[in-house]
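DM from R.C. (forwarded with permission)

"hey, sorry to bug you on a friday — could you get me a structure for this? deadline for the figure draft is monday and I only need the backbone to look sensible"
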Amino acid sequence: MMFTAFMQTRNVTNSPRGAFLAEMKTLINAGVFPPAREWSELYRFLSRRHASDETISLARQLWREYRKLESAGAAA
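My reply, with the result:
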């Protein structure tokens, strides 16, 4: 599963995380979000968009969830 597909499966809630997910899903649907395969690619994308430290922290948490899910899937 690609990170973009993972992001699409996350629920948008009324929280900073939900706001971040909503914005990223909009970018994914618009074809603007990169097909990041490494954290460094996602970080670079967010940095170019002048993301706040909070946004980068939220993205890092989601990236870790994604990698954990990927690792569990690979082990299955």
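R.C.: lifesaver. Residues 53-75 form the longest helix (23 residues).
me: no worries. The chain has a mean pLDDT of 92.
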